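pasting for the record
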Amino acid sequence: MEIASLIDLSRVGGIILKSVTLNPREGNPFPRIWETSCGVLNSVGLENPGVDFLVDNILPRLEGCGCAVFASIAGESEEEYARLAEKLNSLEAILSGIEINVSCPNVKKGGIEFGAYLETVASLVKGVKNYTSIPLFTKLSSAVSDIAKVAVAAVESGSVGLSLINTVPALGIDHTRRKSRLGGVYGGLSGPAIKPVALKCVWECFRATGVPIIGSGGVMNARDAVEFMIAGARAVSVGTALLRDARTAYEIVDELPRVLRESGALSASEIVGTLKT
């Protein structure tokens, strides 16, 4: 909700809330954020107040905010994801979609991330689908052998769209102390450094599925947004840029028509997935 105090949400297309877990989480040790030369390395550790707090105190305040609202869920087992979806299902009047964050450790499978294997993703999405009628978007990581195959598995199992990509696993080191820059040792890299990786993933998943894609990873201006659309995204999300200036969202919206004209289009829908090969 911090962003709502800085910008008018009705001026943006939608918001994706921070991933929520079944129970409150304190997150990883500090420091949690380190700015690199071309992005941000973070290890927040999914700190959040828990789904019940979200349902009772946050989502009701977003009703009628003037933009689409997406919740994001994260769990340590398929059962946790299912219970999260079930708790959110009663708020379908507020939520436009639920993002399934599969970049979480599956405790029952030895800590391997849910998104690492297409079979695991398929089973997870099917399980969540059984507990909600709210449209599902699966958030995938680029740290897999074939993201397009994982995307197909998610879509065939009930995901109506995809969210691409999650942060890229990375490590920062302070050579004077021979220690990690982060309290959680390694973290996730976001910002301009990962944009080429994200664009490739969006293009591959668009060609493989054709479903709506929310593209993310280094969107700093309207040109970046249009590049994601050309790769196949129907919407883009902005994260790291907002840490520098929350008004970046306004700037992207205001500049979008001009950049679209530079690309030979009058509307965003004209350029989605039009990358020439």
